Structure prediction request, 225 residues.
Amino acid sequence: EAGVAQSPRYKIIEKRQSVAFWCNPISGHATLYWYQQILGQGPKLLIQFQNNGVVDDSQLPKDRFSAERLKGVDSTLKIQPAKLEDSAVYLCASSSRQSGNIQYFGAGTRLSVL
Amino acid sequence: GIQVEQSPPDLILQEGANSTLRCNFSDSVNNLQWFHQNPWGQLINLFYIPSGTKQNGRLSATTVATERYSLLYISSSQTTDSGVYFCAVDHSGGGADGLTFGKGTHLIIQP
Prediction:
């Protein structure tokens, strides 16, 4: 079974530029999560989707971050415009009721904002 | 929101030693997972253990839900066990079940 796929693995941009990350969850997983992990800290939830609907986006900085999961499968997270403090690893995870709601994580996208 | 505290923050051991990592949480949980983050940043699932005891090879975990803590045991440590160990919990009880992570325990196993 293929795991959670993310791309790109690395991205370097200048502040005020925009950037987008892509995630393809494990096949059949209805729930998809985006987390932000700043260096030296544990991951923090940004947004959770159930199929193509948003379940929780209470910690998403909506003035600059947006996310979508239009067909209920893969998802895109966008930052526009980026700030220096957005430098972090962005992790995607997925889960399903059938697999006991265990969350499985992708390898992440490491973003550096200069 | 729920608080998750992990201890110790750092641990340096010799190869072959045993270790115990602790996770305390401030409220009841529906989900508790232990992860190992390897040097490349990949979060690897170790255990899904909201209650009870599980074992997988040299690793085992116990969660005492009524006392709001979980323990991860690593026996006969190997250098490949090095990395950061995270405890993460969900206590929502509803559809919003994103995990709240602790700050992690940074484990270094020396040869």
Observations:
- The CA atoms of residues 16 and 77 of chain B lie 5 Å apart.
- The domain at 4-92+100-110 of chain B is CATH 2.60.40.10 (Immunoglobulin-like).
